[in-house]
What does this fold into?
Amino acid sequence: MTSAEMTVYEAVAALNVKEQAATVAEIAGMTGLPEDDVRRCLDDLAAGGRLVPEGGAYLLGDHDWGLEY
It folds into this structure.
């Protein structure tokens, strides 16, 4: 994963902990990345199975670790 993809992934994970799907606008706001970069990262992460698109938002894909916030 690139550093931008990791940043986007972590933003999605933070929102998913709150049981909220992550939108491009929310992720861009959290990370400071341009929306076009966020979209590219989301597409790459979804293609790799790390994220799952749901409507206009994203959820974490299958994983075998827990999150503690």
The chain has one domain: 3-60. The helical segments are 3-17, 24-31, 35-47. The domain at 3-60 is CATH 1.10.10.10 (Arc Repressor Mutant, subunit A). The longest strand covers residues 51-54.
